[in-house]
Amino acid sequence: MTQTLLKHGRHLVGSELVPCDVLIEDGKIKAIGADLNAAEDATVIDLNNNLITPGLIDIHVHLREPGYTNKETIVTGSRAAAHGGFTTIAAMANLKPTCDTPERFKKQVERNEKDGAIKIIQYSPVTKDRAGKEPVDVAAQYAAGARLFSDDGAGIQDAGVVYRAMQQLAAHDLVMCDHAQDNQLANGGVINDGPVAQKLGLPGMPKISETAQIARNIVIAQATGAHYHVCHVSTKESIELVRHAKQLGINVTCEVTPHHLLLADADIPGDDAEFKMNPPLRSRQDQEACLAGLLDGTIDCIATDHAPHTDAEKHQGFLASPNGIVGSETAFALLYTRYVKNGIFTLGQLINWLTGNVKKVFKLDNVGLLKVGDPADIAVFDIDHQDTVKADQFFSKGHNTPFIGDQVYGMTDKTFVDGKLVYDREEEK
Ligand SMILES: [Zn+2]
Question: What is the CA(354)–ligand 1 centre distance, in A?
Answer without folding.
Answer: 18
